[in-house]
Amino acid sequence: MNILVLGNEFNMAECQQKFSTHTCIHANTHKDAATLLAQTEVIFDFLTERDSNSIEIYSAKNDLTVFLDTSLVTLQTLLKNANKTNTYFGFCGLPSFLNRELMEVSIYQETDLHLLDAVCKELTTKYARVADSVGLVTPRIICMIINEAYYTVEEGTASRKDIDLAMKLGTNYPYGPFEWSEKIGLGSVYDLLEAVHEATNDERYLICPLLRKEAGR
Predict the structure, then answer these.
(1) CA 140, CA 130: separation in Å to the nearest integer?
(2) What CATH number was assigned to the domain covering residues 2-129?
(3) Mode of pairing for the β-strands spanning 102-107 and 87-91
């Protein structure tokens, strides 16, 4: 299977690791991708949430399966005005979230569920269907934990090193909050928390001033 990856070099490397038995083709922009659609079956688009109008390039070919990064916006919002000639799913395109055993995916309509099952079997990846909501599930939880860890440091309750160690020992997580923030990128953590707070108005996602400062926002 040929997989078209729209994104940066890190996105490409993560897809190559995740889907190592398939051929990954890299495009930096949607303009570049438009010339590669003829040789593509599946697309992982890490860029569309920044320019929802770019989805229209996929109408040049039918029967594509397109995974759109819905970390900061819902699939319903992205596809609101799109010419839907293909099948679209949402996934988390933040660094480190794709190359995992279980891929979180949202669907646009119920009739697409059997197609999701079929394509994930062909991609040889396990998946979990999640609600079409900003931040999905795992990214939202992890970013909230990172935010709480920043509040703890800001209050002077514990050091970053101690918090990371306590998280790993107490929950068996592979990384502590600050280790995770380095992998994801603090700017990305900030953007997700901001998007979730705007979508939910839930005070749990109010961004810690220290995190805001270190993210340069």
Answers:
(1) 12
(2) 3.40.50.720
(3) antiparallel
